[in-house]
Write a structure and sequence with these properties.
By secondary structure, the chain is of the alpha+beta class. The chain has a domain of 41 residues. Helix content is 23%, strand content 39%. It contains 1 helix and 4 strands. It has a 4-stranded antiparallel sheet with strand order 1-4-3-2, covered by helices on one side. The N and C termini lie far apart (43 Å).
Amino acid sequence: MKKLVTLTVGTLLFAASGCTSTVTLGPKANESQVIGASAGQEGVSLTLPFVKGEVTPTEATAKE
């Protein structure tokens, strides 16, 4: 239970920190690879058969 709460809070903080996410379903999700994962400063990507998910940071803009 503690692990689930930690994961949920971490996901909410990550989503609220200025990120965009994209999910692709179907055959178009596997145009370049069937299974893969990557992570770095430019974002996170996970590819499974018929599913591809990406999360990338957004540019921060100063409000005056």
